[in-house]
Amino acid sequence: MDYIDLHAHSTASDGTDAPGAIIEKGAAMGLRAMSVTDHDTVSGVAEAMAAGERLGAEVIPGIEVSSDYRDNNIHILGYFVDIRSPALRPVLEWVKTEREERNKKIVAMFAADGFDMTLEELREEYPISVLGRPHMAEHLMRKGYVNSIKEAFDKYLGEGARYYMPKRRISIARAVEVILAAGGVPVLAHPLQYRYPPDEVIEMIEYTKSLGIRAMECYYSEHSMAQQEWLLAQAERYGLGVSGGSDYHGSRKTHISLGTGMGNLAVPYSVLEQLKALRN
Ligand code: AMP
Ligand code: MN
Ligand code: MN
Ligand code: MN
Q1: 249 Cα nearest atom in ligand 1
Q2: Which of 140, 153, 222 to mutate to test the pocket of ligand 1 (most atoms within 8 A of CB)?
Q3: What is the pLDDT of residues 216-256, one digit of tens each?
Q4: Is the CB of residue 153 below 6 angstroms from any atom belonging to ligand 1?
Q5: DSSP letters spanning 190-259
Q6: What is the pLDDT of residue 129?
């Protein structure tokens, strides 16, 4: 059987492999189709698609949009989006500006307390990435303030810590609307990663379906086989399509491998065929 991976992050957001390198890796593993789904940006998509053409692997344009649902950060994947769509631009620009303002404030708080951290140095360290807390955590580690990324989040950057700053998000309704307007298929990402009890997962599925979501990510690295089966049954029950991918982040999430996730992920090519049928 042919396998695919429709969820991966590149250096365009918080992954460590360049978009083209992800496709090369997947093609070498024999993956038949892939999607690079960076957080709130499509800036890696063109490179990924060019690599796909070169290597004879199918590359689907993708994005993972962060959105707000009941004050939680819920991720909506968008497949087959037109990356040049005028519907997409203003929203992604807004998200980018929000993030830049927040980065500025966080770095200023660190600097005010005497930490060796400036935005300029972070930009030099990560010239093409969308900067965020993972990069600040690595910076703190490099400078010797902490011994691990976990310590950086626990002590400084995580929710409730001294240098934590919330980030405004677009509503989940807007995220779905924008993906549809850009010609994409909106998909609820990893529905079991938000720590809702089953009845609230169902509520979220019903709500997102009412907004126009067309599929759910049932195959996912961190889902057990039982969870995968449960989600597949819910997708069937609600008449939703199915998607799947590893959420590969390169060496920033060493426990997750492209294609195979934590070892037992296997997303059949038929998943992509069904997703294609959900396009307009
Ligand atoms: P940001 O978008 O700047 O708020 O950063 C969010 C990212 O930080 C997430 O996607 C995670 O990769 C990472 N992150 C958040 N909390 C933690 C944590 N406690 N430990 C390690 N990484 C984290
Ligand atoms: Mn990420
Ligand atoms: Mn996600
Ligand atoms: Mn992701």
Answers
A1: 12
A2: 153
A3: 999 999 999 999 999 999 999 999 999 999 999 999 999 99
A4: yes
A5: -TTTT---HHHHHHHHHHHHHHT--EEEEEETT--HHHHHHHHHHHHHTT-EEEEE--B-GGGSTT-BTT
A6: 80
